[in-house]
């Protein structure tokens, strides 16, 4: 089918290429000239036959908001916007409502698969109305792996980005679990072959997983990870997962611990731990004013 | 090679069978008659040619301790005991020392693979001296998967059980991560197809793993897990992992959160939360004695 | 000085009374007749001499929003609104801006002290402009304890509610700490006099505190807390504290653990723990399809 | 009454002094000459009239073990040893049993109060038999504050050190709670007067406590704690508290988080976070082998 793709970077460019290989008619637009087929969004819309399908695959936040807003002005009743970035799910409903006022549909799609997706297919999790999603079915079928799987219509608008967010939250927890296990083995002094241990787990064990495969590869390249610092960024999805847990009154201690560990990893010094140190100093009885401190030794 | 196998249950029995299929000469003993080849430990020792190899595959704790102790009396210089249960790693060194006094070797082996291991091979993580481990190499080669992998000599005595313990600690964290993600999706009211979401993640995503495969299967059988209670036992390995973290001064918040979540799952009511409730009651200013409580609303 | 007080409940009514005792001229309004001096907000504004000071002490959320909005219509340049409820600090700036458009000032005040505050004085933490805060100084001086202390001008608009929120977050952590200690002692079977232990800590120890005094009193009334269930509500401040931690990339594991413990206390069953139970079932090898489960015993 | 005091340092020396002021006959011994009344333990025992009371107030671990063992040789039936150090409670029962074989009693005492205890009195939490504790009552009465309170007979041998351990675990959680609140306020950029905020809380609020008094004093001396590093040691009691929680299947997330925060504060770099960084690198698709990595951006 015919489709406009906005954003032709590592993700959108590869997705457009895969769709073309599968016989779809893709008109591409990007802010940078080069791969783009049209010079402006307006031209993109003109080039597509109504009712149109436009897939937005640009960085989340401001860039996506600007594109979706502009599309709202350009598109017509019966068209559909697919928002494929890592958008916070709470932003989906307002966008959908704004478009709905003009009769334009909105489907949010969490996309997983990265640079290898072009070849292997992508995981696609979508939210939106049944009719809109069904109309897009040929596109989803071509994007997901050839042998089936990799697709879910998770619910109404916002559900696609919600489950992508939860997916990443789970990912945080799994990575942290391996990380804690690694540090334990290194610190123990007992385990003489830590990389070999992870490698041995890749077959037959309960923890076998793609993340373990990646860790095996990382340790093969750098057996004691000496070329890395333990400094870890966090993307929005981890924070949003914890905020959703708080909003929904769901205890999420492992995922939250994983997020906090990343926060701590980026601190040169901890303001909080300064307070604990200060309190221990005060216990020590060094200060000599009226209050009655307790000896540090006896806490 | 020749080997005595003590314990012919689900694990030991299958391991003995796999070893025999691979051409080893296995003499089996079990407390229950039936599959056993000899009636007593003493007879087992007599039947083996020195220097002997005896693999102990009985429940950890008292049963294992008793068998190893008895073997200490029966075996001779040059023999080797392989301890394959889920033993706390701190118990390995004392056992090895006791046996070493008689010139008997000791190798601890963490074994993973369960009922499917007979067919697919087992993951084996061992601790012990290089010579002892090398002598056992033909046994390990036959137990691990046919296409290689699944074996590590992790370090000296205790290292095998240590890494098996860490493996299980990581497993706790991974399971908890999936569990928190599930509850978030269920609680959200946004995700209309939770089983389908997990199913869709099995291909192409970062969280793909054997545990996710299992979860997919569980949700296929019981889509809202309505036949289960959220009551979860914990085996020793999770506790030992946290204790090792404490001993080694390693922060392990995600694994610990997973253990505590299991503890909490088994409580009908929480003593701790009674205290918090009591304190909030006190805030309410119902009591009328000298102290100056603060209004609950203004906390 | 002259002051309008909106909301004459347990908090506002007592605060009005304390201010009158200290010689201030308070005009009170409440939705319920009875204690109120005027029938409508409009009448309240008419009764006050410009430039006016109006203290809003009604439930946070909608009720406060409605009152502040209506005051925006009624008040004039040079008047000041003091918002004394447990408002989320992020709501303060928009309210202040809306009022500023008309030249009306806004000061947010976190108030602590509850039903005993009338007699003992209140803790007051305010955010707002220096001039506005200084103009209100006589009111703050009369509300805080007679012997000084209990007041801070924490920063610009929003800072008062922010620090009140943090205060309550800390309170969550302290309560949880005592609660965990209590459960440990009860579970140990070693401590035969738990109430007596808490009581003994009230003098001379590091943990002595008003919360400990309250706990001592609660245990005196009900030594094993048998009349309570471990079911604990959470007010907004705990959640907002965690959300602020996430927004600010500050690790706050103890406060977050306290919040999650409250969430868990209110669950009859845990969806998350059902997942862990389901996974352990799958390990057990009961299912008979293609995948290769690992024995639960060997996990 | 008559009493031998072993260990005349900051704790034991002051306690001996307080007891003498209250009319007790104290014979002191220390490894260092100076304050000691006798040159050897043996002389100490000779100087006391049977049945004797000997209070051991030396560093926990090896020093205490050595002294108690030596006393076992020197003392006679009917004598009592009081062990006042910060001993792990699990060590108490074996010591008591060893002494009981000779008819010597054993009482464990957790002591709080530090350098100010001589003047203000100490908090004393004891474990032991009723008769032994009653015989020591005059000593406890003199050590605790003059206005009563500060004493509990918590249970049998070990209970005194158990509750002192829990006391310190609670202390960890309280300190961490204040610390997290401090960091939140500093990071917010909203709170312009953090020291003033803590100071204002010292009167009338729910979090008022001796630790808050200490924090107020610390911030008065160094308002932004710039002279400190966020590097915090941990004493055994925090670790033992978490281990007890694990042993007793009691969830203790806040206290454990406090312990782990201290562990993390002492790491120059985190091995665990290196693993997370390595995994994120692998996502990035830099490696070029067969596996199918997912794009970091799309996680």
UniProtKB/TrEMBL annotation, chains A, B, C, D:
InterPro entries: 3-OH-isobutyrate_DH-rel_CS, 6-PGluconate_DH-like_C_sf, 6DGDH_YqeC, 6PGD_dom2, 6PGDH_C, 6PGDH_NADP-bd, NAD(P)-bd_dom_sf, Pgluconate_DH. Keywords: Gluconate utilization, Oxidoreductase. GO terms for molecular function: NADP binding; phosphogluconate dehydrogenase (decarboxylating) activity. GO terms for biological process: D-gluconate metabolic process; organic acid catabolic process; pentose-phosphate shunt. Residues 160-297 form the 6-phosphogluconate dehydrogenase C-terminal domain. It holds the Pfam family 6PGD. The keyword Oxidoreductase applies. Belongs to the 6-phosphogluconate dehydrogenase family. PANTHER family: 6-PHOSPHOGLUCONATE DEHYDROGENASE. This is Decarboxylating 6-phosphogluconate dehydrogenase. It comes from Nocardiopsis eucommiae.
